[in-house]
Amino acid sequence: TFDILDYDLNIDLTSSNQRLLKGKAIITFSVKMPGQTALNLDLLDLTIDSIQAVDGTPLQYGYSSPLLNIHFPDTLLTGVIYKVAVSYHGTPKTSPSGFGGFYFEDGIAYNLGIGLTDDPHNFGRSWFPCFDNFVERSTYTYRVLAPEAFTTYCVGHRVSDTLIANVGRYTVYRMDQQIPTY
Q1: CA quadruple 33, 69, 129, 96: dihedral positive or negative?
Q2: d(CA 156, CA 45)
Q3: Which candidate, 143, 139, 124, places its Cα nearest to that of 43?
Q4: Whole-angstrom Cα distance, residue 95 to residue 55?
Q5: Which contacts qualify for 164-171: CB closer than 8 Å, 24 or more apart?
Q6: What is the mean pLDDT of residues 70-92?
Q7: Per residue, what are the HEC states of 79-92?
Q8: DSSP 11-28
Q9: How many DSSP H helices and E strands does the chain contain?
Q10: What does DSSP assign to residue 75?
Q11: Which of 47, 60, 120, 143 is most buried, judged by most C-beta within 10 A?
């Protein structure tokens, strides 16, 4: 029913709680089937702080992990590009299989994008709101704020890497090829 075109992910890993991720995902999408009034996404056990249209208008939503339903005041039109911003935080989950999800280990934070025993196997939902399957492909911008001594790596090409005094290291990556959420 939807085509997720792009994820712009703002990730803050500077909390004094070593396992806390604060995020804001700007999701760009279009409608494939007429009559849609809600966008359904996947997000696993993280706390939603707010959901807004890109113009700042708050949007109603329902969230019962792992399903996030964002409701729009009007029917969405095919052929139109929409954006929503989801602000959230929490400790990302790992797969019960022991392989997959988002990990904090030995001063390193990293994502293994699949959960071998999970259904679906994609595990992007453990650290950002997404349409989590192998078929849907999107482009990505990753904006990561980490402690100053950390280096971040993401898929795509590095756009910038900036030290912000008394705040941390802010690194931006862009992936222009469409890839799935894992």
Answers
A1: negative
A2: 27
A3: 124
A4: 36
A5: 167/14, 168/14, 169/145, 170/143, 170/144, 170/145, 171/142, 171/143, 171/144, 171/146
A6: 96
A7: CCEEEEEEEEEECC
A8: EE---SSTT-EEEEEEEE
A9: 0, 12
A10: P
A11: 143
114 to each of 39, 111, 173, how far by Cα in Å?
Answer: 23, 9, 21
CA separation for the pair 82, 77 (Å, rounded): 9
pTM of the model: 0.94
Tally of residues, the chain: 182
- Amino acid of residue 77: L
56: CB partners within 8 A, 6+ apart? none
b/e 16-28 (16+ beta carbons within 10 angstroms → b): eeeeebbbbbbbb
Q: Mind listing the pLDDT tens digit for each residue in 89-106? A: 999 988 888 888 888 888
Can you give the three-state secondary structure of 154-173, one letter per residue? CCCEEEEEEEECCCEEEEEE
pLDDT at 9 over 80: yes
Residue 73, token pair as written in the block: 């005041």
Rounded to an integer, what distance in angstroms lies between the CA atom of residue 93 and that of residue 99?
11
